[in-house]
Design a protein that fits this description.
Layout: E1 2-7, H1 14-17, H2 20-27, E2 32-37, E3 50-51, E4 61-62, H3 64-75, E5 84-94, H4 97-104, E6 108-113, H5 121-126, E7 130-133, H6 143-154, H7 164-168, E8 187-188, E9 191-192, H8 202-220, H9 232-240
Parallel strand pairs: 1-2, 1-6, 5-6, 5-7
Antiparallel strand pairs: 3-4, 8-9
Helix pairs in contact: 4-6
C-alpha cells in the first residue's frame, strides 16, 4: 500500500515513521509513505497557502492553487488504479471499522490535511473523492485525524501485526466491543483470572470471550448491535440475558 500525506506540517508525522507499527510496515515494505510539504507547491516567496474568504468573515481559507499543484504532481503519470484522495474534515463521513477495512483494501491513499477554516470548495469538487472525520468535534488541522486513520488502516494489513488474528479480535472488527483480557499473575491482590481461561478448553474459551463481548457491547454500546455480525447462537444468548431485537432490527430493548 502507498500512503501519501499532503500537509503544511510534515514534521508532525516524522516520529511515527520511526516507531511502532508505522516503522514495521515501512521496514517490511508493506506500506510506502510519502510526506509532502504543501508550501513547496506555492508560487510566491512567502510560500503562502491561505487567504481571506470571499464575502468576508473570520478566519482564513486554504488556497486551491497549492493543493491542485501538489495533487497533480503526485498523480502525474501514475499507474492504474488511481489513488483515492481523502480530505480529513469535520464535514466528512465518520470513520468506523467498516470504513477502515474498506480503505485497507486499496492500493494507494492520498490524505489531504486541512487547516484554518478549511479548504477552498473547488478542492472538494475537483480533487477529493471522500471526506472523512474522526468525530463530531473540531481540531486545529487534519494531521491528527490522518494519523488516526493511518494507524487504524495499516494494522489490518497482513504482516504488520505479528498475528493478524489479533486485529480480527479487536473492538469493532465484527461490530462488537472486545472481550476482557488477562495476563500473569493468575491472582493479583485477590483478583483472580476466570477459571475458563485456565482450562485449556479452547472451544469454551472462545464461547466465553464471545459472550463477554456481547455483554460489554450491550452494557456500553448497545447502538452497535443492530449492525453487528451476529450468529443465531449470539442472538439466543442475548435473549437469555434479557435483551431482544425489535422487529426490523432497528434497536434493542
Amino acid at each position: 500500500m502507498k500512503i501519501d500525506l499532503v500537509t503544511i506540517f510534515p514534521q508532525l508525522f516524522l516520529p511515527h515513521l520511526e516507531t511502532g507499527m508505522w516503522a514495521i510496515a515501512q521496514k517490511k515494505g508493506i506500506v510506502q509513505f510519502g510526506i509532502y510539504d504543501l508550501r513547496n507547491y506555492t508560487e510566491n516567496q512567502h510560500r503562502t497557502v491561505d487567504d481571506y474568504p470571499f464575502g468576508g468573515g473570520p478566519g482564513m481559507i486554504m488556497k486551491p492553487g497549492p493543493i491542485f499543484r501538489a495533487i497533480e504532481a503526485l498523480t502525474a503519470n501514475s499507474p492504474q488504479p488511481p489513488p483515492l484522495t481523502i480530505l480529513l474534515s469535520p464535514q466528512g463521513e465518520k470513520l468506523n471499522q467498516e470504513l477502515v477495512k474498506e480503505l485497507s483494501e486499496l492500493p494507494w491513499l492520498i490524505l489531504l490535511c486541512g487547516r484554518y477554516r478549511g479548504v477552498d470548495q473547488r478542492v472538494r469538487e475537483k480533487l477529493v473523492q471522500r471526506e472523512i472525520s474522526i468525530g463530531d468535534y473540531v481540531l486545529t488541522g487534519g494531521e491528527l485525524p490522518a494519523m488516526v486513520l493511518i494507524d487504524a488502516v495499516i494494522r489490518l494489513l497482513p504482516g504488520v501485526l505479528g498475528d493478524l488474528d489479533s486485529a480480527k479480535e479487536d473492538s469493532f472488527y465484527e461490530g462488537l466491543l472486545d472481550c476482557p483480557h488477562y495476563t500473569r499473575p493468575q491472582n493479583f491482590r485477590g483478583l483472580k483470572v476466570p477459571p475458563v481461561l485456565l482450562s485449556g478448553n479452547h472451544q469454551e474459551i472462545r464461547r466465553w470471550r464471545r459472550r463477554k463481548a456481547l455483554e460489554l457491547t450491550l452494557e456500553k454500546r448497545p447502538d452497535l448491535l443492530p449492525q453487528a455480525n451476529l450468529s443465531k447462537e449470539d442472538l439466543d444468548y442475548l435473549a437469555q440475558i434479557g435483551y431482544h431485537q425489535q422487529p426490523g432490527g432497528e434497536r434493542w430493548i
